[in-house]
Amino acid sequence: MDLVLKKSGLGYLYQSDDFDVLLSGNLPEGLQSLATDSHADEEVFGAENGARLIALKRDVAQGNNPASTEIDLPSGAGMLTYRIDIERVDSDGMTGILSVITDISETRHRERILKTLLRELSHRSKNLLAIIQGIATQTARQALSLDYFLVKFRGRIQSLSYSQDLVTDSSWRGAYLFTLTERQVSAYWPASETPIAIRGINAHLSPNATLHIGLALHELIVNSASYGAIASGINSLTIDCFETMFDNSEAIELAWIEHLPPANPLKETEEHTFARTVLERVVPVAIGGRAMYMTAPDRIEYHLTIPSREYEIITRVEE
User: Fold this and answer.
1) CA-to-CA dists, residue 138 to 66, 77, 271, angstroms
2) pTM of the model as a whole
3) Fold observed for domain 108-312
4) pLDDT tens per residue across span 45-54
5) CATH class entry, domain 2-103
6) Nearby residues of 155 by Cβ (< 8 Å), 6 or more positions away
7) What number of other Cβ atoms are within 10 A of residue 251's Cβ?
């Protein structure tokens, strides 16, 4: 029987109506004193929990109705949780109270982790929906027709999904800047012998930064694919990331520098106005950083300062 109890993980304590210990077995480590001291409940479980347990035993002894409770017990290994099932037993002329003690610490720990993950998922889902709502609203304001809205909205949602895929694949830890950039660029600049140059620090971005910087890159890439270097099939743009300071704290700066071909001067359009809103306001506000977007007949520059809370530098390139 003892072997069966050990394999089941159950411990038991059989007491008289006066709480004298009659039998015990396989009590969890740290609870063994319950087997030798009939009044050890408060000492082992604490005054409040011990008093509650004693009251339950009295009720069971008087009313014959089983009872159950859970008790959390701090330990050096973390919080331990025990379920105690109490019932009155009459057997072989013996009358008493049987307490079956089960260590459910691992189960409760998994439940707490799951609840935390579900709360985090709910929070992140709400953030994602807010981003989508913002994209829909801003796109609708600039839409000249329903078809125009659908094309632009789908493109932006697809861009967001690229970034979200990277975040999800990393178990919500974020994404590397270079991977994010390559993923956003790939839809408009297929792999070729002259890939777009991405230089500097390959920072690991937070989930929030990944989603919003992905949107910024999308607007820059779409504009380039419409009027700039990508549209002309030339590799005249560079993307660089380097360390800087922001509000007296460490930061990084993402710099997009694109040289425009003479035949394709920059065109001011409604779509370009939307891009400015995203690049100059939406993205820097979302990450708590700073942005500068400059356009000229021969070039486009975008500089985004990213505060340290939105990234970490895991590896550094040796100079």
Assistant:
1) 62, 52, 10
2) 0.69
3) Heat Shock Protein 90 (3.30.565)
4) 989 999 999 9
5) alpha beta
6) 218, 222
7) 19
